[in-house]
Write a structure and sequence with these properties.
Elements lengths: L3 E2 L9 E5 L1 H4 L4 E8 L3 E6 L3 E16 L2 E8 L9 E4 L4 E6 L3 E9 L7 E3 L5 E5 L6 E7 L10 E7 L4 E2 L4 E2 L11 E8 L10 E6 L7 E6 L4 E4 L3 E7 L5 E8 L9 E2 L5 H5 L12
C-alpha cells in the first residue's frame, strides 16, 4: 500500500482528489475533494457510503434526494470552523457554487440510512488539545458523542507554525479494551509564506514488530497520507507555516475513537499540566 499520495496524483476532472476504498487498498474510509469554478456544479451519488460535505474554501448549495441546503463555507481552511452537510447512503447529490470553491467529501461505507442534515459551525465541538509546543485545535464535525452517523468519523486539526500535533503517537488498529480498529486518512493544507512561498510539513507513521510500517513524509497542500495500522504522529508544522489537516476514520467495529499511545512517549501528556496552551490555537 502506498501511504503517501502527493497532490494531483489522484485527480480526475473537477475532482482534485478521489481516494476510494479500492484505491486506498482497504474497506471503509474514503475522501474526495471537489473543485468548482464560479457558477459550476457537479452531480454524483453517495452509493454505499455516508458522507460529510465540508467547505475547504468558498460556499455552495447542496441538494440531496430532493432536499436542499446552503453552506456559507469559509474563506479557507485556516478561517475557523465551517458549516457542513451530512449526506446519507444511496443519495443523488448536486453541489453548486456561485463563487467557486473547494469542497471535501469525507466518506465511509455504511448500512444505516440517516437523514440529510445541514449543521452550522456552532454545532461542531471545538477542542483545544495539548499544551506548549504540542498545542493544537481540533474541530469535531462528525465524531461520536457530538454527531450521529453510522460509521463515519471526521474532524480537522489546526496546528500553529512550529508546533507538533498527533503527539504523542497513537494507534487504533486492534479491537480490544481501550482501543478500536479504524482506518484513517490525513488530508493536508499548509499555509503559504508572506510572499506566497509554498509551505511544508512532515508526517510520521510507524508500526510494531508484529505489523511493521514506516513512513516519514514531507507533505504539502493537497497531499494525503493513509494510516492502515500502526502509530501515527507527530504531524509537524514547520516554523513559519501553519498546518491544517482533515482526518477521516472508519472501521468494522463500533463507532468509537479509542486509541493506544506509544508507551515510550506517553509521559509527554503529563508534562502538559505544567505548560500553558499556545494562544494561537484559540478560536
Amino acid at each position: 500500500m502506498k501511504l503517501h499520495r502527493p497532490a494531483g496524483s489522484l485527480a480526475n476532472g473537477p475532482w482534485e482528489l478521489v481516494l476510494t476504498q479500492a484505491e486506498a487498498g482497504w474497506s471503509w474510509a474514503s475522501l474526495r475533494v471537489l473543485a468548482l469554478g464560479a457558477g459550476e456544479s457537479q452531480q454524483f451519488s453517495t452509493g454505499d457510503e455516508e458522507m460529510v460535505l465540508l467547505a475547504l474554501e468558498g460556499s455552495c448549495s447542496v441538494s440531496c434526494a430532493g432536499e436542499e441546503a446552503t453552506l456559507a463555507g469559509r474563506p479557507g481552511p485556516f478561517g475557523g470552523p465551517s458549516d457542513f452537510a451530512y449526506l446519507p447512503v444511496g443519495c443523488p447529490v448536486k453541489v453548486a457554487s456561485a463563487g467557486g470553491g473547494r469542497f471535501a467529501l469525507a466518506g465511509a461505507r455504511a448500512s444505516k440510512r440517516l437523514a440529510f442534515r445541514r449543521c452550522g459551525p456552532e454545532d461542531a465541538v471545538v477542542e483545544l488539545r495539548g499544551a506548549g509546543a504540542s498545542s493544537r485545535r481540533v474541530t469535531n464535525y462528525c465524531m461520536p458523542g457530538s454527531f450521529e452517523a453510522d460509521r463515519l468519523m471526521a474532524c480537522e486539526v489546526f496546528t500553529p507554525a512550529g508546533n507538533w500535533s498527533s503527539w504523542p503517537p497513537h494507534k487504533h488498529d486492534e479491537r480490544r479494551p481501550g482501543e478500536n480498529e479504524l482506518e484513517e486518512i490525513y488530508y493536508f493544507e499548509v499555509a503559504k509564506g508572506p510572499a506566497g512561498e509554498e509551505g511544508v510539513a512532515y508526517q510520521r507513521v510507524y508500526g510494531t514488530a508484529e505489523r511493521p510500517v514506516d513512513l516519514l513524509a514531507e507533505v504539502h497542500s493537497g497531499d494525503v497520507v493513509l494510516v492502515p495500522h500502526g502509530y501515527h504522529g507527530p504531524s509537524m508544522a514547520a516554523p513559519g507555516y501553519d498546518l491544517y489537516y482533515l482526518n477521516v476514520m472508519a472501521g468494522p467495529g463500533e463507532r468509537a475513537w479509542l486509541v493506544s499511545f506509544d508507551p515510550a512517549h506517553e509521559w509527554v501528556r503529563e508534562s502538559w499540566e505544567s505548560q500553558a496552551i499556545d494562544p494561537r490555537v484559540r478560536p
